[in-house]
Design a protein that fits this description.
alpha+beta
C-alpha cells in the first residue's frame, strides 16, 4: 500500500509520498511514487500514484514518452496542454486505458487491478490546481473547502489536515502538516514506509522550488515526529475530565 498527500494553499503546493510497495509480508520493496514534469518558468506538473505498480509505471512511462515523441501535441502531451484541467484529462485518459489493458490480461485468472493519482501544478498565466484522478479516469479537484487530497492509506493522516489546513495556511505550515500527517500514518500502518519524497511548488514560480528525500532515521523528520508526540502527550495530560 502507500500514502500520498497533496496540500493546495494560497502560497503554493506541498506534496509528500512514501515509497513502500507491499506484495505480502515477505515481499516489500521501495519504488518512487512521485513524478515531476516541468519546463521551468513555463509549467510544472507533479504526479503521485497509489495502487497497482504495473498500472502506475506504465501510465507514467506513456505520459513521459508523449512529451518527447515526434509530433507531440497538446492533446496527448502534458507539457504542451493549454490548461491544468487538460493535463488532468490527459492523465485520466491514459490511466483508464492502461487499467483496461491490464484488467483484460488479468481477467482469465479472475484478478483485477486499479490505481489512482494526485496531479498538481501550474502553467504560466494559469492558476495552481490539484486533482485526484480515479482509476476510471474521472477526477475531482481540491477547493477552498477541501484544500488537500489523499490517496492510499489516508485515514490515519486525515485528522490533522482537517484541523489545521486552510487556504491561508502558510507554505511552511503546510509542509509541516504534510509531514505530521505522514508521521501519523507511519506509526499506525506498516504498509506505508520510508523513504519519503517531498516537493514544494511556490505560486507563480512554475517550477519546483524544493525537492527532498527523507531516508529512514533522518534527524529532521525524527525531530518533528518526537516534538509532535511530546506535544500530544502534554496536551492530553492537561485535559480535565
Amino acid at each position: 500500500m502507500t500514502y500520498c498527500v497533496g496540500l493546495l494553499v494560497n502560497q503554493g503546493i506541498v506534496l509528500l509520498a512514501d515509497t513502500r510497495t507491499n506484495a505480502g509480508v515477505d515481499n516489500i520493496a521501495t519504488y518512487r511514487k512521485m513524478f515531476i514534469f516541468e519546463t521551468p518558468g513555463d509549467r510544472v506538473v507533479a504526479i503521485m500514484a497509489a495502487g497497482s505498480l504495473s498500472i502506475t509505471q506504465t501510465t507514467i512511462a506513456r505520459l513521459a514518452e508523449a512529451n518527447v515523441v515526434e509530433g507531440a501535441n497538446p492533446e496527448t502531451a502534458i507539457l504542451l496542454a493549454p490548461t491544468m484541467m487538460d493535463v488532468a484529462a490527459i492523465i485520466g485518459n491514459t490511466l483508464a486505458k492502461v487499467r483496461s489493458e491490464v484488467e483484460q490480461k488479468l481477467a482469465p485468472v479472475g484478478q483485477g487491478a486499479a490505481a489512482s493519482m494526485i496531479v498538481a501544478g501550474q502553467r504560466r498565466g494559469g492558476r495552481m490546481r490539484m486533482f485526484l484522478v480515479y482509476p476510471e479516469g474521472n477526477f475531482i479537484q481540491a477547493t477552498d473547502d477541501t484544500p488537500f487530497l489523499q490517496i492510499g492509506e489516508h485515514k490515519y493522516g486525515k485528522p490533522i489536515l482537517d484541523r489545521v489546513v486552510r487556504p491561508e495556511t502558510s507554505l511552511a505550515d503546510a509542509q509541516k502538516a504534510a509531514l505530521l500527517s505522514m508521521d501519523s500514518t507511519l506509526r499506525s500502518n506498516l504498509s506505508v514506509g520510508m523513504p519519503l519524497d517531498l516537493a514544494v511548488i511556490e505560486r507563480d514560480a512554475c517550477r519546483m522550488v524544493l525537492t527532498r528525500r527523507y531516508e529512514a532515521g533522518d534527524p529532521e523528520f525524527r525531530g518533528i515526529s518526537e516534538s509532535w508526540a511530546n506535544a500530544i502527550r502534554e496536551s492530553f495530560s492537561n485535559i480535565l475530565v
